[in-house]
Amino acid sequence: xTQSPTAPALPAMPLGLDTDTDTAPSVAHGPSAQPTRVLAxxxxxxxRTPQAPAVIDRTETWTYQDLDAAAALVAADLADxxxxxxxxxxxxxxxxxxxxxxxxxxRIGAVYLPLGPRPGExxxxxxxxxxxxxxxxxxxxxxxxxxxxxxxxxxLLPTDGVNAPAAAVAxxxxxxxxxxxxxxxxxxxxxxxxxxxxxxxVAVAEPSLSVALDWYRAETGLAPxxxxxxxxxxxxxxHLLELWAALTSGAAxxxxxxxxxxxxxxxxxxxxxxxxxxAVAATPTVEPLLDRPWPQDLALRHLVVGGDRMxxxxxxxxxxxVHNAYGPAEATVVTTTHTMRGTDPEAGDLTPPPIGTALPGxxxxxxxxxxxxxxxxxxxxxxxxxxxxxLGYLDPELTARRFTPPPQDLALxxxxxxxxxxxxxxxxxxxxxxxxxxxxxxVKISGVRIEPVEVEAAFEQDPRVRTAxxxxxxxxxxxxxxxxxxxxxxxxxxxxxxxxDTVRSWLPEQAVPAAVRIVDGFxxxxxxxxxxxxxxxxxxxxxxxxxxxxxxxxxxxATATATASERLVLATVRDLLGRPGIGLGDNFTDAGGTxxxxxxxxxxxxxxxxVRLRAPELLRSTDLRAFAALLDQRRTPRPEGA
Length: 642
Fold this sequence. Notes:
The model is unreliable at 1-20, 543-559 and 638-642 (pLDDT under 50). The longest helix has 15 residues, at 64-78. By secondary structure, the protein is of the alpha+beta class. Strands 1, 18, 19, 21, 22 and 23 form a six-stranded antiparallel sheet that branches.
């Protein structure tokens, strides 16, 4: 049973049922909360402050009146083909066009389904086969082939500014659509990792998002005159917190240039140049910032960080209030937070901070395997209830498995469902939570939840692959990478680079393994199951097969004949990717380099060599040798008079 949009406020309740913290159960409640409206708040600001900036996109400013009018035109263009409750796949990047689309779909009552600006063809195929998607909105040049050749309805979306599409259409197809629709009352839906190899979608109602937005405004003071980032990747649900927090506060949204994802210096430069006062960022993006002096000329007052485990506290020089946030998509972006300031006694501590206490309207229960609360201080699975809960998955059977009634003997007034997060946590005496990891094989990479079985299923779609097993490796600093162990089909000899190219059409970037190992078979445990720890140990001990064959010359690159820059670049990339077989002749991205790895590589180069290089220079380099040559060039002082 889903919660009604008019559900009563949750009463404020004591953090536990027992005053003895040694025996008190791990049950905690946030303050009471009353769901409000989201779209109506934006429309109210459009009436009250029509000339206030709603989106500041480089040199162009869209006022609340401009944004309201543009959304009305798009809603009118879609109204004949898109009905309330219809799922609409949005293939746009962080841009003014995305903001207009989100408002237009909310006005129609359609369900916003963000898919990212260039979703993989096969991933979209799987989504459209499962879900009843009315249309895709995006640049026709980058839509999947089936939608490129379908019926197009032009949309008057902005085509100038940061990450703007060259053109925008609503693309319809005549093919049979999937049967799963969003539950009644859904405002948006997002894809999460699927254990069957097909992504699963979770739907969220307007009241649930409103509670998170009300918390954000109250906690950060976001108000007219402030500037809020639009930085998070569009396929990742926290971008909805950014987008609607600004529009329901009378503040201005500022879309982020794409290269801010790669370079922490560019990120802080953008914060400064855009005069941002509020920002949301993925934890791996912020980590490099905490390893160097914090810029003292930022207007940034509040920074919400989430999506991965935070490994240290901000230092005493950090002038922004940092909120360490936790929350699965099934509990509407943010469930708990821990607030940190530079004036805290613990500032700069090199131990992970807690993920904090419950937001308003949130109930937390840490349980044993039977679903019963454990005592505070003991480990268990986190279950979440309250106004924050999503309506459920678009798969009713999956919803029934993951959203379950609380135990009958556990007194939880107004709580009829608890979501099983699968996260292992410990509740402290004050009701705050320490995050300890996953109970299953699901991992987070660059803030995105990934189930290895989904990655395995993507490999097994390839006829050259008989079986694939994906293992998770962690380095000493806790960074995670995936390794695929592939047993080829009879007679097949697939190149590992070709296999990686194929799975990229099925998977988000963060789920593409860093390496592929071709194997003849898999070790088995005593129960006859694949011994995944043994496979992971093999991958850790040996060099995984790189995307192309490493030559003898490449392996000699680390000898004394290499320049200091070559040795620095090669050693850093090998360490970051955990692949000792990488050579200077390998291309960074082909070798498994991601935006997070690039940021760490650039930070290391600057720290060790005193040279600041930009992400585009790394990405444009044909191989690591060329990148090292660029570093040598910047290191070498020019002759006098040159």
